């Protein structure tokens, strides 16, 4: 993840938290709605930046691939 991806992720999480607290969301359905609204805020901001800058925020180059040794879970020996 690069800096902008992290910023938009944090924006989505912070927006969701603010909405959840302000609406006093309880239960799965209310929290799901708050999460969708928070994600939309971050998504709209990302799309607006991409439109204005002409560059995509999310690219394949931003993700690090895990070494093969970290992908495998070693089972305990019996």
Structure description:
- It is flat, with a radius of gyration of 18 Å.
- By secondary structure, the protein is an all-alpha fold.
- The chain has one domain.
- The protein has helices at residues 3-23, 27-53, 68-71.
- It has three helices and no strands.
- 67% of the residues lie in helices and 0% in strands.
- Helix 1 packs antiparallel against helix 2 (27-53).
- The longest helix is centred in the middle third of the chain and has 27 residues, at 27-53.
Keyword list:
single chain, 67% helix, flat
Task: Describe, in short, the structure shown.
The chain contains three helices and no strands. It is an all-alpha fold and 78 residues long.
Write the layout of secondary structure elements.
Blueprint lengths: L2 H21 L3 H27 L14 H4 L7
**What's the helix-strand series?**
HHH
Mean pLDDT: 87
Q: Specify Rg, calculated over alpha carbons.
A: 18 Å
* Sheet having the most strands: none
How does the helix and strand content classify structurally?
Answer: mainly alpha
Distance N terminus to C terminus? 39 Å
Approximate strand percentage: under 5%
